[in-house]
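Comment thread on ticket #2218

A.B. wrote:
> Attaching the input chain for the structure job we discussed in standup.
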Amino acid sequence: MSLNSKISPAFEPFLAESGPNDVREAIVLYQSPVIMPAERGSLRALKERLKLVESRAKEHRPLHDQLLARYAKQSGVKQVSVKNPQSSSGLRNSPLPVARLDVTRGTLPALAEQQGVVAILPNQKISLLQPKAVDFEELGNQEAKAGLTWGLQKLDVPKLWETTKGKGIKVAVLDTGVYGDHPALAGRVEEFGVIDPLGRRVTTSATFDSGQHGTHVCGTIAGGKTAEGLSIGVAPEAKLFVAGVLIGDATLSTLMEGISWALESGANIINMSLGFSYYEPLFDEVFKMLIDQFDVLPVVAIGNENHGNTSSPGSAANALSVGAAERLPRGKLEVAAFSSGASLVFPGVEPNALVTKPDVTAPGVQVYSCIPPEKTPQGTFQYSYMDGTSMATPHVAGVAALLMSAKPRALVRDIIQQLKDTADHPSGAGRRPDNRWGWGFIQPMEALKALG
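C.D. wrote:
> Ran it. Output below, let me know if you need it in another format.
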């Protein structure tokens, strides 16, 4: 791997207005021994997973400290003491092989030369992928009659419920938080935490949502029924582990800490509806670690910036990125106009020289789910419709939870592949993948059958 290929192209705009000696924060990924993931699906597997995460964190501490010491000596950029695990050097106790370092234009090459360095990314800001619309309309007659949201109907979720409702699967949601006292989420939020903009974990005795987004996403993944008997959640017996990472001026280090928190909680799936300002191909190294070393599935929204655009990290090759589909008259489906998608070319980068995103599509328009109580002149509302790839992503996370629960021996790579292979593209399999539908609209029952 060349030195230039280790340094993110996002550094160019990130450093555009900085002088040669101006210090900026970088996120560094370094090499870690590759291991085979433990099996899912039993208490023993959960214990093995948590034991694995703890051991990886211990293995990474000396590697982290050695990297900081070597780089500080060679570059002359003074780093915060590595002896203090809570220092702003950051991420020292992470199960991921990742460090937060100060860099300048001149010291970036020196950092890339350090033994074991895999990728260097700017610690850029992250932000919520905002929903495209919010509406307090009454439920459609068809949804009320069926007792299901249209997304659950279209995905044929009740047929999967005959086999499983997601029991035993942990889904981490890295978002704006969650209103855990919502009746549709009763007993479903297993753990809650906050990661502040400095990447510090903040303990709180009560759950909260800094907006509405995280609660809406959680409802689609694992919510129960409304008072009227409408089912809103794909995997109602899955457990939710929610971290508020989009509170204040969050950065990439905030997200990294959130991912570490999710691993330490034993998460099987991580749902992310967030993005970066600059395209970040090297973030794919994080997703490869999650999938290959921890057997954890990253499900990521592709963005709401229309065709021809994508949002990082959903545009990373190993992310299971999700576009939004909408229902049309007579049951027809179409990709929503706002749903992002693009074909990305990286000359000389193998094996992923061409990346086409999204990977799959799912219901993402007029999605009905729970929100924190909202007082309006018309009354207090606890449910709302929202549009966005952020609404499509939890449908896929919920489906993955059902598949994992039903097929505990299936590895994440297998689940990703079958979700793509069995997806329905309206123009036929010969057009797959494209940068609107990806591989197509997911077909959960077909994916379950294909997993054997």
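A.B. wrote:
> Thanks. Noting for the ticket: Residues 3-123 form one domain.
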